[in-house]
Specification:
Two copies of one chain form a homodimer.
Chain A: E1 3-8, E2 12-17, E3 20-22, E4 28-30, E5 34-39, E6 43-51, H1 53-69, H2 85-110, E7 116-124, E8 130-134, E9 140-142, E10 149-153, H3 159-165, H4 172-189, E11 197-203, E12 209-215, H5 220-238
Antiparallel strand pairs in A: 1-2, 1-10, 2-11, 3-4, 5-6, 6-7, 7-8, 8-9, 11-12
Helix pairs in contact in A: 1-2, 3-4, 4-5
Chain lengths: 244, 244
């Protein structure tokens, strides 16, 4: 499995993903699920992927190929020249549909799950910062003030903390901590989600990825955060009133 | 869905279940999932059920019927005269298998899910306090010191807190709070789990249900606990070091 979370705040986007992919418990490997593109001063886009790896790799490869093709034919529409983030989400959705169509029959015959989901976040100059969740069928939804975050993959363990602390007004630094705490709870409770992690930040109206960081298993900062949260939770728990 | 949790401590058993059953989002009803039996001074048994309601009701009805039959034929083996808790788990498993066999063909034809799981906890005089998880196939596993709790139904939201605070040495009062906090996180994040709740405690070597309480949506104690936990979590979160 996978756990990816993207939080859309007034101040910007926080994106965090793990890197574990497994085909059964005995076949675990490491694949980055965060893919980012920048056009300096013009747009920054991050995709997070979950689900069948052959499908999500197919989507990313096709998106890259479209971008390469613009060297020959600048008229080709890509996520880097699309005229809105909404159109970017549509292109990802269309690409998803093409990859699904190509492989569905063969995969269905094998009984393989071909579900895949992609989080698409970013901003282009002239538009606002947006975050979309693209489904296997190519359709998508957008994050709004009522639900300012999306999770894909193993989302349940890490949802309670996000439900409690995230609003559109949450500062970027706090949301970064919330994403990490949400990931930490998931890592502790589910083996199919694993280190290292990929973290990215896109500040509103910056048109760039202002931070991109790989968090390795021995990352001291993440370790400190994880320990601090563990201690805080334990002491919060032990200070609860004995109402029963 | 459902959320039930049972925690086996040195000091006793804590059991907590919700009461929401749904056949689709538009068909929600209330069914108790906690069933208990006592033979004064001799044994106390609690069952928590999750999964297809027709299956779990079938299991409970058959177990009750076996008990009624002992009025006519005292030789009939039931969960109230079985000579060990292990045998009680076997009887529940055998009953599960019978109910599954009776309905499987028809349900398969309809494409209905017939999964069901039962937590079986309790103690009889002469034996130790034990906790089992019975699967749809009638097989079962037992809680041990390494894994002193079982969850059935929507278990993921409420697992992180249990993973962090529960050990066999946890006092009963603390475990009761942990079960409630685990339930509270689940209630907040998943609509298919709902109030009221049923709570039961079996103290080690007491051979009785020392506490049995229905927690209604307006329960002041549960409300206080929920608020206190929410505040504690929020302040724990806001006190986290800004490591990133």
């Amino acid at each position: 499995m996978t756990y990816c979370v993207a939080i859309k705040l007034d101040a910007g986007l926080v994106l965090l993903s793990d890197t574990r992919t497994n085909a059964g418990m005995d076949n675990i490997s490491r694949y980055g699920k965060m893919h980012s593109w920048e056009v300096p001063q013009e747009r920054a886009i991050v995709l997070l992927t979950a689900g069948n790896l052959s499908i999500t790799q197919g989507v990313i490869t096709r998106l890259e190929k479209q971008i390469e093709m613009t060297a020959v034919d600048p008229e080709v529409e890509t996520i880097l020249n699309a005229d809105s983030m909404f159109r970017v989400a549509q292109i990802v959705g269309e690409t998803m549909r093409q990859v699904q169509e190509r492989h569905r029959e063969g995969m269905e015959a094998q009984g393989t799950a071909f579900n895949a989901t992609v989080l698409v976040g970013g901003q282009r100059k002239g538009g606002s910062l947006r975050l979309f969740l693209v489904y296997s069928a190519g359709n998508f939804i957008e994050a709004t003030a009522d639900t300012p975050f999306f999770q894909i993959g193993e989302h349940k363990y890490g949802k309670p903390i996000l439900d409690r602390v995230i609003t559109p007004q949450t500062p970027l630094e706090k949301a970064k901590l919330a994403a990490c705490v949400s990931m930490d709870s998931t890592l502790r409770s589910n083996l199919s989600v694993g280190m290292p992690l990929d973290l990215a930040i896109i500040k509103t109206d910056s048109y760039e990825i202002s931070e991109r960081r790989r968090i390795e298993p021995d990352d001291k900062d993440f370790g400190r955060l994880s320990d601090a949260w563990s201690q805080a939770l334990n002491s919060a728990f032990h200070d609860l009133p004995h109402v029963f």
